[in-house]
């Protein structure tokens, strides 16, 4: 994994692109609500992060996430996808 593909960098890039904002704004936000992320956008964000990092995020755990730090922690502990 290259330095620019760390979980935090990927998350902030994906959220910034999806929410049409800057990475700096995403880094400053604490809650998902503050960024205006709804359930559909969350699905799109998670799918993009999973693809870029090659991980699989647990849907049940995702429902309990309410902040960027919680989402990042979930991403960091998510297992790699099995090779096809």
Plain-language structure description:
The chain has 84 residues and is an all-alpha fold. It has a single domain, classed as Orthogonal Bundle (Non-ribosomal Peptide Synthetase Peptidyl Carrier Protein, Chain A), CATH 1.10.1200. 56% of the residues lie in helices and 0% in strands. The chain is built from five helices and no strands. α1 packs across α3. 20% of the residues are buried. The mean pLDDT is 92. Keywords: Phosphopantetheine, Phosphoprotein.
Structural class: mainly alpha
Number of domains: 1
Uncertain regions: pLDDT < 50 for 5+ in a row? Answer: none
CATH top level?
Mainly Alpha
Mean pLDDT over the residues: 92
Q: Could you spell the SSE succession in H and E letters?
A: HHHHH
**Helix percentage range:** 55-70%
Total DSSP E strands: 0
**Share of residues in strands:** under 5%
CATH architecture annotation:
Orthogonal Bundle
Question: Which outline best applies?
Answer: globular
Alpha carbon gap, first and last residue: 19 Å
InterPro entries: ACP-like_sf, PP-bd_ACP, Ppantetheine_attach_site
Domain Carrier: 5-82
Protein name: Acyl carrier protein
Keywords: Phosphopantetheine, Phosphoprotein
Quick description:
This protein has helices at residues 7-18, 23-28, 39-53, 59-62, 68-77. It is mainly alpha-helical and 84 residues long.
């Amino acid at each position: 994994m290259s330095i620019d593909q760390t979980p935090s960098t990927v998350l902030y890039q994906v959220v910034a692109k999806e929410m049409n904002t800057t990475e700096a704004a995403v880094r400053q936000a604490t809650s998902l609500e503050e960024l205006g992320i709804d359930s559909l956008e969350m699905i799109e964000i998670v799918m993009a992060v999973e693809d870029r990092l090659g991980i699989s995020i647990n849907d049940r755990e995702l429902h309990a996430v309410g902040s960027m730090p919680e989402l990042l922690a979930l991403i960091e502990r998510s297992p790699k996808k099995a090779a096809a």
